[in-house]
Amino acid sequence: DERLVESGGGLVQPGRSLRLSCAASGFSFSTHAMTWVRQAPGKGLEWVASINEDGSDKYYLDSVKGRLTISRDNGKRSLYLHMNSLRGDDTAIYFCARHGAREAYQAFSYMDAWGKGTRVTVSS
Amino acid sequence: EFVLTQSPGTLSLSPGERATLSCRASQTVSRNYLAWYQQKRGQAPRVLIYGASSRATGIPDRFSGSGSGTDFTLSISRLEPEDFALYYCLQYGSSLTFGGGTKVEIK
Q: Using the beta-carbon criterion (under 8 Å), do A110 and B50 form an inter-chain contact?
């Protein structure tokens, strides 16, 4: 069975940095696009960033561009989210999610597998 | 900017009743690339429906999706106790956008 396990969350001061990781197992990691989704306390789901299968294409929510960077290491079967200049509104649970198979003309398919998330709290 | 508006915000129903959830898009969803997710407290979301009307693997047939263009619906024919949860729609035809969610609660 496919499994996604996030790590790296915690309490961090505003303006500081954090790196989230997502370890994948049970499926062919290098053949799936991947995404980070976050959920602020008591709020809905918010797409944050996505990366294609080989890491050559990356997409970001406007409000995180220039501060958050998505990357992947297919050899290590891992997805990352580098978070710089953190702000209070970055406080959320961050989920790693796998995209299903897509059509050739399609940027991304829907997300068909999710990790349990890692909590990030930005506070002084 | 793509906006998905889900209604109602909260749906209060009893087990055995039918639930109808709406997701309206601010522009046409390309190729009806619309998915529905269920999220229970403290858990990750789970995909129920993709492509507006296709059930994901292992999803009971009491869940069904319909709609096209800008108006989509998730229906749960007879609510089971485990169906009381949060539901989100997601469009994946132009970047990725979630709706604000509908809470289905026990009346």
A: yes
Extended beta strands in chain B, E state? 4-7, 10-13, 19-25, 34-39, 46-50, 54-55, 63-68, 71-76, 86-91, 97-98, 102-106
| Residues in chain A closer than 8 A to B98 (CB atoms) | 37, 44-47
Q: Per-residue pLDDT for chain B (107 aa), expressed as one digit of tens each?
A: 899 999 999 999 999 999 999 999 999 999 999 999 999 999 999 999 999 999 999 999 999 999 999 999 999 999 999 999 999 999 999 899 999 999 999 99
- What the block records as the tokens of A51 is 């990366």
A61 within 8 A of A49, measured Cβ to Cβ? yes
Does residue B59 sit at the A interface (CB-CB below 8 Å)?
A: no
